[in-house]
Every structure is written in C-alpha cells, then in structure tokens.
Amino acid sequence: MSPRLVFRKITADGLYIEIEEYNGLKLLLLTKDMAGMRARPVQVLGVARTEGSQNTLRWYYEYVPLPTDISPRQLDAWLHDRGYVMGVFDQFGNFVEKQAA
C-alpha cells in the first residue's frame, strides 16, 4: 500500500496540498504562503496516485516517491518558473530553502 497523507483543506499553521502536472505526473506538493518570501515555499512529497475522503473534513492522497529518472535540477527550474522555491518544512511548519547544488 502506498503512503497516505491525510490533511484538511488548510491546516492551522497554513500548510496545504497542491497538485501540479509535470511531464504527465501529478506532483504532490506541500506549500505555504509566507510573508517576506520571494517565491512560494514548496516541498515535493512525491507523485499522487489516488485521492479519497474519510468524511467531509478529512481527505487523503496516496502517493509514491518521484521516479529516479526525473532530473532534480530540471524539476527545480520548472517549479521556480511557476513561482515556487524548493525546500522542506519541519514538523512546526517552518521552511528551510534547498541550497543550490
């Protein structure tokens, strides 16, 4: 069974899920609007497989890791062109930007 990410439409700390189509894949993105950022923070969680609902407040996505043939540099550039900045969120919703390779 694929991992599941259960979420509300938006969490108390402002995190929410977006789906972006990239090369025929549905990327599962964790995002947050943050004041003072030059672009919108994003963490790529993987490729969304299925969406479901346990009730009207709780939804989930099953997802798998990104395929190994995806170029991280090309994905970063593609997301940047759409107004995102890559990084990771910690358990408190704080964002750490990915350092350029």
Quick tags:
7-stranded mixed beta sheet; 7 strands; 1 helix; mainly beta
Please describe what this structure looks like.
This protein is mostly beta strands and 101 residues long. The protein has one domain (4-97). Helices cover 10% and strands 49% of the residues. The chain contains 1 helix and 7 strands, in the order βββββαββ. Strands 1, 2, 3, 4, 5, 6 and 7 form a 7-stranded mixed sheet that branches. It starts with a strand and ends with a strand.
Tally the helices.
Answer: 1
Number of domains: 1
Low-confidence stretches: none
Structural class: mainly beta
Main β-sheet: number of strands, strand sense, barrel status? 7 strands, mixed
Mean pLDDT: 84
Shape: globular
Radius of gyration: 14 Å
- Strand percent estimate: over 45%
First-last Cα distance: 33 Å
**Fraction in helix:** under 10%
Number of strands: 7
Tell me which oligomeric state these chains represent.
single chain
H/E order of the elements? EEEEEHEE
Give the helices and strands, then pairings.
Elements: E1 4-7, E2 15-22, E3 25-32, E4 40-53, E5 59-64, H1 72-81, E6 84-89, E7 95-97
Short description:
By secondary structure, this protein is mostly beta strands.
